[in-house]
Amino acid sequence: EIYTLSLHDALPISHEPTRRLLAERALRVFIEVPVTTLVTRLRRSRTVRPVLGGDVDAGRVRKLYEGREPLYREAEITVLAVRGSQAALAREIASRVRAWNAGERP
Q1: Residue 13 · residue 22 · CB < 8 Å
Q2: What was the pLDDT predicted at 10?
């Protein structure tokens, strides 16, 4: 069976046993988004991110991202999400996963 698990806010990947388990049993996809885009999206969001509190400070977001980026880069697949629709991003991810499963590696 195939499942999709979305990890956000870095909590699961900052926990070493969880990260190891994901590395052993999952195909990880890092959806790379520029920090400026993250800041814009976070400011538009109604969701309060515990690590940021109510204030979305661009410097704080950049610092968090830079600290987490090495963990994100452990993913087998990286997809850059700069332009396009969510549907196009989903198609790109699906295509890359199919290629990976067929043995094509970057």
Answers
A1: yes
A2: 57
